[in-house]
Design goal:
The complex is a heterodimer of chains A (227) and B (247).
Chain A (H helix, E strand, L loop, with lengths): L5 H18 L1 H22 L3 H23 L2 H9 L1 H7 L4 H30 L7 H26 L5 H28 L5 H29 L2
Helix pairs in contact in A: 1-6, 2-3, 2-6, 3-6, 3-7, 3-8, 6-7, 6-9, 7-8, 7-9, 8-9
Chain B lengths: L1 H8 L1 H33 L13 H28 L2 H33 L7 H22 L3 H33 L14 H33 L4 H11 L1
Classes of the chains: A mainly alpha (227), B mainly alpha (247).
């Protein structure tokens, strides 16, 4: 018999992860800093010409977001694995999938959401016109949760492995490619004054698919990895 | 069906079966390769546009088909291992990965060799090439995960989850890449456009595909035998087998 309901357990995990994350602010800033550094590389490589940068801005921001997001996935389960709380989550009487959802949501709020907002600031550095800002924001708002969901499967499979971080990146970045394609296409279309509806329908469908399947795959992977 | 699964799911029986079947499949493979190569390289007429260089399709197209087929075999075997805990299925899934990766690589390499005289370039960011390349990444990721986990059982099950996630993603990747490339540019050169392939060219192609399938089955059995022996090295039947071969 459990004393707390599934909803309460969900909330408890969510709040715990948020609290833990906010107490390690440095760790949260690292992916954002990495994002900023990767974006800075491009003007250095492409040259400071305004038109060139403007043209490549959607691609640059999205590639940097994919990289920053994939390096942040390692954080999702590692500390819980090290201090044993991951085992407790798996042993709890509540639905493991539900608790995993709480962890993914917390991870997105701590990494994906700041990344989305930060990207808007960086797009100004790359001279992205104002009319493309909203599509960029929306595509990141839909895309980064997909990253967190898909990344959680990779994070669960590689948790506790030596050199797990690099391996994790190799596993999940190929799976991120469709999101990158549709998002960059959406922002580019907006830049050229075309409709962005089709791309957003695709992104929405990918989000729904990831939301439906990824938590189960993650729960199964964690059970396998913890024996 | 479960009776068969029960019987040949046991490593010892599967090993014996594979030992018996390997030479048969080996000879069938050899015969099919001879027939396919003679048909494709000698009997089939040269293409009126591409000349002799079209003949690379007899390696290229079967490898491209096999690259997907092997992934499906790998994922199905993984699922069987995951659901029914069949040890042999784990061995099959593990043996599939390097072969699938090589078929994918072969498809990319032959495509590239054909592309140089035909398209004038080694590589184009065409939809099929790109999704084939991403498939190669999926195979390599699977193999990297397998080698990172020391525990055999756990590696097999983790790999199975990854392969199944890949199965969901392959069509998504394929269609998104196709959509991406049509957005960038129209198809400048498409391989099999309007004129469909002539029957004298098609028959060797089908024979070659069968040859590739049978080759895959043969090598799969050899590899699975190795996997089973490694996996069961502490059991009495493997020990007996070793003593017999030493004597």
């Amino acid at each position: 018999m459990s004393l707390v309901s599934n909803h309460q357990a969900f909330l408890a995990i969510l709040l715990r992860d948020l609290r833990l994350g906010l107490r390690h602010r440095g760790e949260l800033l690292n992916p954002l800093l990495f994002f900023l550094i990767v974006v800075t590389l491009f003007p250095l490589a492409l040259g400071p010409d305004k038109l060139t940068l403007q043209q490549h801005a959607p691609a640059v921001i999205w590639v940097a977001a994919v990289l920053a997001s994939s390096v942040s996935m390692d954080m999702m389960f590692r500390s819980d694995f090290e201090d044993g709380s991951l085992e407790q989550i798996l042993l709890s009487p509540h639905s493991v999938t539900m608790l995993i959802m709480a962890k993914i949501l917390a991870h997105w709020l701590l990494t994906g959401a700041p990344l989305t907002i930060f990207a808007l600031l960086l797009s100004i550095l790359l001279y992205l016109p104002v009319e493309a800002l909203l599509p960029l924001f929306m595509s990141l708002l839909i895309g980064t949760p997909i990253f967190s969901l898909v990344g959680s499967v990779g994070g669960a499979l590689t948790v506790g492995l030596r050199g797990g971080g690099m391996l994790l990146t190799l596993l999940i970045v190929p799976l991120y490619m469709p999101v990158l394609i549709f998002s960059v296409a959406a922002v580019n279309n907006a830049l050229h004054g075309m409709s962005v509806r089709g791309e957003f329908y695709f992104l929405g469908a990918l989000l729904v698919l990831a939301l439906t399947l990824a938590p189960f795959a993650t729960a199964a992977s964690l059970r396998i990895r913890m024996g | 069906m479960f009776d068969i699964l029960d019987k040949y799911g046991a490593p010892k029986n599967a090993y014996t079966l594979a030992c018996t079947l390997t030479p048969w499949f080996g000879w069938i493979t050899a015969a099919l390769f001879v027939a396919g190569l003679v048909g494709g390289l000698i009997l089939a007429p040269p293409d009126y546009e591409q000349g002799e260089s079209f003949r690379i399709i007899y390696v290229h197209v079967p490898s491209a088909w096999m690259s997907l087929f092997v992934y499906m075999v790998m994922a199905s075997a993984g699922a069987m291992g995951l659901v029914w805990k069949v040890k042999v299925a784990d061995a099959i899934a593990r043996s599939c990965a390097p072969m699938g990766a090589w078929f994918t690589f072969l498809a990319l390499a032959t495509g590239s060799l054909w592309g140089k005289p035909m398209w004038g370039t080694w590589w184009v960011w065409d939809a099929r090439l790109t999704s084939e390349l991403i498939l190669l990444f999926l195979y390599l990721g699977y193999m990297a995960l397998q080698s990172a986990i020391d525990d055999r059982r756990m590696a097999a099950r983790a790999g199975a989850v990854l392969a199944l996630v890949g199965v969901v993603n392959i069509p998504i990747i394929h269609y998104s890449v196709e959509w991406w490339s049509t957005l960038h540019q129209g198809p400048t050169v498409s391989k099999f456009d309007a004129p469909s392939i002539h029957i004298s060219m098609l028959i060797p192609l089908l024979i070659m595909t069968l040859a590739f399938m049978s080759y895959f089955a043969t090598i799969l059995m050899v590899r699975v035998r190795g996997e089973i022996l490694d996996q069961e090295r502490n059991t009495s039947w493997v020990r007996k087998l070793c003593e017999k071969s030493e004597a």
